[in-house]
Design a protein that fits this description.
Helices cover 87% and strands 4% of the residues. By secondary structure, it is mainly alpha-helical. The protein has a two-stranded antiparallel ribbon with strand order 1-2. Strand 1 and strand 2 form a beta hairpin.
Length: 103
């Protein structure tokens, strides 16, 4: 009878130890699940930020295109002004523009 009781107690002790190990594994699993959730949230935020940046880059690209067009128009106007000044200079070397005498 003592032998049966010892075996029973050893089995109970073994089962208790296994249950304790399972509880520890469950705690670690819960921590890992929490970290995974944080990581997923972080990744979702990054993806959202990436989308916002792509939109901003699109707007910046369009704005850059508009500025390039304006710059092209300004260059054309500058060329016209230079041609006008050169023409005036050729007509009369005593021409003054804004108080500056062209010679």
């Amino acid at each position: 009878e003592m032998c049966i009781r010892d075996r029973y107690q050893r089995r109970v002790h073994g089962i208790t130890a296994i249950a304790s190990d399972i509880a520890e594994v469950n705690k670690e699993n819960a921590k890992l699940n929490c970290q995974v959730t944080k990581y997923r949230t972080f990744m979702e935020k990054l993806e959202g930020s990436s989308g916002v940046l792509k939109k901003r880059m699109g707007f910046a690209s369009e704005e850059n295109r508009q500025l390039q067009l304006q710059l092209s128009v300004l260059r054309s106007k500058c060329t016209q002004i230079q041609q006008t000044i050169f023409m005036l200079y050729n007509q009369n070397s005593n021409v003054e523009i804004n108080g500056i005498k062209l010679q």
